[in-house]
Amino acid sequence: MPDTPPALSVAMSVYNGERFLAEAIESILAQSFTDFEFLILDDGSSDGTADIIRRYAGQDQRIRPIIRENRGLIVSLNQLLALARAPIVARMDADDNSRPSRFETQLRFLAENPDHGVVGSWSQDMDENGSLFLSKGREHPVTHEQFEHNMAHGGPLFCHPAVMYRRDLVLAQGGYHAAFRHCEDLDLWLRLASVTRLANIPERLIQYRHYAGQVSKRHATEQQIGAAVAYEAYHQRAAGKDDPTASLDQLPPIDQLDALFGEQGIGQRVREKVARGILHSPVGLRDQGFDIMLSHIREGGSHEGMWRTVLRLVRLGEPLRALRLTTVLATN
């Protein structure tokens, strides 16, 4: 008899994730809904990730291990989409935990709401030890109308590892776009919002881990730049214009964005958003984000919050950057 495809494909890409991987895998294997395949892709890890994946694959036939050289997260996510056999895909990260009822709850929502192509959930924040982590972030939107409000005002959309979506819909939109490293999910949600309805279930179906080594902390400025450009592309599409980022392998420098979009002021708006986005980011204030902030001020950008950032730089042990920012603020 032919192999019957599962109802759900779970997609997890891992790179050097041995620290939390076993806990994440076990949270999936403990789901109350059991008709799934679990695709775990080791993206060229140099630690014990592959051995952990192979060990669990030997214990549970639902796990499909993919072990290969490093190609990056976006390539990995698109490969997982291509390999998935189910019509619905659940995302999962190797450092988070899913509640036992997650799949059952989200699948029920999609079955009852065929006009929705993506559903996430609220998350419970935890630290690296699994203890409660107090986050100042806002709750994710619940209804599609709340998503539209947040897209217009820059609010949060989805917690990526908590998301479940219809595979064909995502593939029809081109999957994850290569240019948006470290914010590939945001770009995807903004594209999907024009062709389907989005929702989050107001239950904490996933535990989201915060720790020093996670991507969002190591690549803060690149993430901020990508997010700002993703929104510019979103506005282009909403205006009926072509999206010039769709076929790019990487985004050009900010100074070239006006030419890319064929519109003046794009680069200035992106610099402003990045400058605002890194005000409280130690990584962003220490990398290229700092120079983007200075350019924003020289262009006549708002000084709001910038003087407090001078003090923040001093506390971070960056007196020279604090002096540079003081000089630019005082002369512009």
UniProtKB/TrEMBL annotation:
SUPFAM superfamilies membership: Nucleotide-diphospho-sugar transferases
Top-level division of the source organism's lineage: Bacteria
Alphabetically ordered keywords of this record: Glycosyltransferase, Transferase
InterPro entries linked to this entry: Glyco_trans_2-like, Glycosyltransf_2, Nucleotide-diphossugar_trans
Domain (Glycosyltransferase 2-like) ranges: 9-170
Family membership noted in the UniProt record: Belongs to the glycosyltransferase 2 family.
GO molecular function: glycosyltransferase activity
Protein name according to UniProt: Glycosyltransferase
Lineage per the UniProt record: Bacteria, Pseudomonadati, Pseudomonadota, Alphaproteobacteria, Sphingomonadales
UniProt keyword annotation of Nucleotide-binding present: no
Keyword tRNA-binding part of the UniProt annotation: no
